[in-house]
Each structure stands twice: as C-alpha cells, then as structure tokens.
Prior knowledge:
The chain is of the alpha+beta class.
Amino acid sequence: MRILLVVLVIIAGLAVAADFGAAAYAEKAAAESMRNTANLGSDPSVDIKGFPVLFQAATGKYDEVVVKANHVGTEKFGFIDVEATFHGLELPLSDLAERQLHKVPVDRLEATARFNALRPLVLLDVAGLLPFGVVPTSIRMEGTTVVVTGSGTNVLVDIDSLKGK
C-alpha cells in the first residue's frame, strides 16, 4: 500500500511539473509570436492562468491569458504601456507550436493602455487607442499618465493589424 501511495505521489508531481513546463513553453511561444507579428521591440509578458494548462492547450481554449507590453511605439500616442486580459481565448495547439498567432477569437477582452499626458490632443481620439473594437469604459489620470480602460465581447484579435501602428 505504501509503495502505491509513493508511486501516485510521484506521478502527481510529474503531472504538475509537466503542466508548469507546458505553461512556460506556451507563454514563451505566444510572446515570441506576438513580438514578431506585431513588430514589438521586445517580447511582451504572457501569463496563462488556470490549471491544468495542458488541458487548455489540448482543447485549444484558454480560460484566461494576461499579456503586458511596455513601451510600445505608436504614431499617434507615442509610447504606450498595454495590458490585456483575454477570457476564453481560442488558439489551436498547432498554431501555438508553429508560432502562428494572427487572428485569435476571444470571448471577452479587457484592456488598459497608459500614455504620457503631454500629448493632450490625442485624447480626442482615445477610442482609436484600444484596438479590435474594444470600447473605452474609463479614462483617468495618474499623475502625468493617462490611463484608458475598455472591454469587448466576442472579439477577433487580429495581431497582424498591429504592425506599424
């Protein structure tokens, strides 16, 4: 009986380790693909939430994915910091493995963008700051930084459309 218990604990430990390894691989693959597809200067931070990640990857539907990109260059807004939380992100494992992130359906998207308030005229077009049809829900000031938050449902995230923005 004791041997069976030890074997079960070892198998459970290996399963958890495999899940953490899969999460790290998927996060790195997504970050590299987004950097290359959207012409970002560096890899964004990608955090896949939920457990087990292996099950989410196998089904191609992720419960929650948080992406953060800092110092993203834009023509209109200058450099911005972006944080997006994707709920119900659909991405086949084959696309992730091949780093083919182009158009990704999402059930719900919450986004926050921050930029320097020294460019006040861009506030007239703040709706253009949040991509993919995300509607701004709040605009506030934090010191000299403008913070715009928004959300959208049933969003098609077209990463290719971010090139050169």
